[in-house]
């Protein structure tokens, strides 16, 4: 039996892996299953691809059960951004209407919304949401936007857990206000699966929801869920047409030509692994507690005030403000992130928001207090060195 949770993963033990929220990490047992599936595919490609839609459908059903949603509401897509792009490509936004997003939106999503709106002759309204905003204040900003008599809101695109800023948004309440105003809602739940016990229930009656499974559930990368409810689901088609195009949603997504879909087939094993080894409820409690402790340690090390980022924090991701002048733009954030990797052996997420730099901490089952203590001990000197 592994003596430390890290032993369940193939991660380099000489590196402190503190950025699970970006790329995830795949357990060893799932990597083994992935290799076995790929070997099977190469042994007899004809047989593999003839049977593939049926096997994808089974994996999709297992994933839907994990997310507590009927299988007929869920399609598999490569990642959350692909799911968002699928919805935006399928909807017809009324000319002159408005799409509402926030200044916390993931960059690729914001760019996708801008392109979709421009094609349709629609506009984009970007709401500013302060880092210390309460759930009630966040909801109020959306309510004011969708009821603005000067414009018609056709679509609201809202993060469930924001990427760069680690905020937890009250998407069920936001959805309620949007629907009352006649707008559709697309929830970007990229970080929600695994981190939240029931992300779809917390999304309320949102029309569309997308979530990555390679992050907190630790599935192979390239696995994400697109959930659609009601008649609008039948408007959704894969970004690339294949032989399943005549089928109803979500079956039309089960055929993707000759793409390597082994990550989808291996994904249920990741979900089983966490339950078998740790228990999902206990796992969420552990990583939430560890993320909070990590934030306190790093804030103490930097003398940082976390009150300004204490509004509606995500359970397993936390922000720590960096000293003024650090990571003031995306390029500087990436440079500092690479420096911390080389200088102190820590893979971290350094983000920037409105010209201010932040350390975005992630916690997962292979992390422990010593990981963050190491970062806290070495970060001040590393920041001084980076600024020199």
Structure description:
The protein is of the alpha/beta class and 388 residues long. It has two domains: 32-272, Type I PLP-dependent aspartate aminotransferase-like (Major domain) (Aspartate Aminotransferase, domain 2, 3-Layer(aba) Sandwich), CATH 3.40.640; 279-387, Aspartate Aminotransferase, domain 1. Helix content is 43%, strand content 15%. The protein contains twelve helices and twelve strands. The protein has helices spanning 20-23, 28-43, 45-66, 80-90, 107-120, 135-146, 171-180, 199-202, 262-277, 280-302, 330-344, 369-387; strands at residues 16-17, 74-77, 98-102, 123-127, 153-159, 184-188, 208-212, 224-228, 317-321, 346-347, 349-353, 356-362. The strands form three sheets. The protein has a seven-stranded mixed sheet, sandwiched between helices. Strands 9-12-11 form a three-stranded antiparallel sheet. The chain has a two-stranded parallel ribbon with strand order 1-10. α5 links the parallel β3 (98-102) and β4. It is globular. The model has no long low-confidence stretch (mean pLDDT 97).
Q: Tags for this entry?
A:
43% helix; Aspartate Aminotransferase, domain 1; 2 domains; 15% strand; Aspartate Aminotransferase, domain 2; 7-stranded mixed beta sheet; 388 residues
| CATH class group of the largest domain | Alpha Beta
CATH architectural category of the largest domain: 3-Layer(aba) Sandwich
CATH topology of the largest domain: Aspartate Aminotransferase, domain 2
Which secondary-structure class do the elements indicate? alpha/beta
Number of helices: 12
